[in-house]
Amino acid sequence: MFESKSVRLNLVLFSFFFLILVGFSLSPFVLQVEASDAPDAKVGKHLFKHYCAVCHGVTGTGNGVNADRLGDVEPADLTSESIDKLDDEEIYEVIDGGGAAIDISYYMPPWGALFSENQMWSLVAYIRTLSAANGAEEAAAVRLADLEKQGDEGCVACHSKEKNLLRPIGPNIGHEGSKLNREWVADFMKQPERLRPIGYMPLSKAKMPNFYFTDAEVDALVEYLMTLKDDGIHPSVLMGWDSSDPAEIEKGQILFEEDYACDGCHTRGSDEGGIVGPDLSYAAERIRPEWMFYWIKNPQRIRPDSPMPNFNMPDDQIRSILSYIYSLAGDASLAVTVSGEAPADPEKLAKGKKILETKNCKGCHLIDPFNSQLGAE
Q1: How far apart are the C-alpha atoms of 55 and 262, rounded to whole Å?
Q2: 25 belongs to a structural domain
Q3: DSSP at 287
Q4: Which of 31, 254, 313, 355, by CA, is between 20 and 30 Å from 261?
């Protein structure tokens, strides 16, 4: 719940959950943290610390790292008496339906498509423990690795997706050939940069080290990475799409800024906007448009622990937003293609794979070229 400085009433309703970061969907890939059917404040605590603290702070007092990036909207102090006065059902409604459900700012996205009912009630239960009236607890930092593990796994730091565990260090690089543009990958390997100011995982500030690869090593690595595909990503989904259509760009900007408030998490080449997600001003340079289409449609099918909401956005709106995002790169947007690549060089492939192994990339990354859309409706 966030409120505008000028509207005190909205503070109470909106401040509770601007969960800019959330990542537990009902996808079969995701770790289910519920131990039973009953809401559990401990489950809510883990979810809150990992996903909500970016705005509300680890203690719930509204001082998260993204709190001052939201214009005239402020995260509420969840330890306050005003939150105590809300009914559990009111809080649940805000989490489930977002700001649109109660006619407040769209900066509050809907989370009902991601969280299970039990998880939302568990979050409500945990928020109740934050108030002074209920004896607010001392909040300590909680890592995703602290979540209750399933089965007999002894470590979640280097998990595999098949075990339904979430990876806290780096992204899955097993579908780079479906996601990223070759030239961008090469430049990134030579000079890694932090794509998300607060880190790949919330508040971690994780950053890939510079391995000082030679040009030949980079060439081989990129050759290998470009062969790693997500079989669920198909360029045909954007057949006939014109990224430079002025009408679609204008429509997409309205959707981006007003209907979905994407600037709550993203910047666009300036200091304005949230710092949860990457800067979108160079998306055309970095990301293949067909991959981004599927990402916006359902982020958790590609990355189960994704902090991006699933808005259940219609396909035509996704294409419009893509047109706007790709227009941010200027002339680069006109060069967007959805075509395939030439066959890989076997010698470079072998060298690139060997480099990946000798540098122990699997210590921080999954390398899993799974079909993200398998079983999708």
Answers
A1: 15
A2: yes
A3: B
A4: 31
287 forms beta bridges with 180
Q: Determine the structural domain holding residue 206 and report its residue range.
A: 169-377
Contacts of 181 (CB under 8 A, 6+ apart): 285, 286, 287, 288
Confidence (pLDDT) at 335: 55
| Lookup: tokens for 13 | 């309703």
Please name the amino acid found at residue 274: G
Nearest to 289 by CA among 262, 263, 318: 318
Cβ of 257: how many Cβ atoms within 10 Å? 14
What is the per-residue pLDDT across 82-98, written as a single tens digit (0 to 9) for each? Answer: 888 989 999 889 888 88
Higher model confidence: residue 21 or residue 307?
307
Asked if the structure places residue 164 within a domain, the reply is no
- What rounded mean pLDDT belongs to the chain? 78
Q: How far is it, in rounded angstroms, from Cα 283 to Cα 110?
A: 25
* pLDDT score of 363: 82
Q: Which pLDDT value is given to residue 332?
A: 60
Q: Say whether both 198 and 88 belong to one domain.
A: no
Mean pLDDT of 260-268: 91
Q: What is the DSSP string of 231-247?
A: TT--GGGGTT--TT-HH
Are residues 225 and 352 both part of a single domain? yes
Tell which residue, 310, 259, 256, has the closest CA to residue 281.
256
Over residues 343-367, the pLDDT tens digits come to 678 999 999 999 999 998 888 888 9
DSSP 304-321: TT--S------HHHHHHH
How far apart, in whole angstroms, are the C-alpha atoms of residue 288 and residue 304?
20
Cα distances (angstroms) measured from residue 22 to each of 47, 214, 350:
8, 38, 38
Instruction: Classify strands 2-4 and 73-75 as parallel, antiparallel or unpaired.
Output: antiparallel
181 and 315 fall within a common domain = yes
Mean pLDDT of 171-183: 93
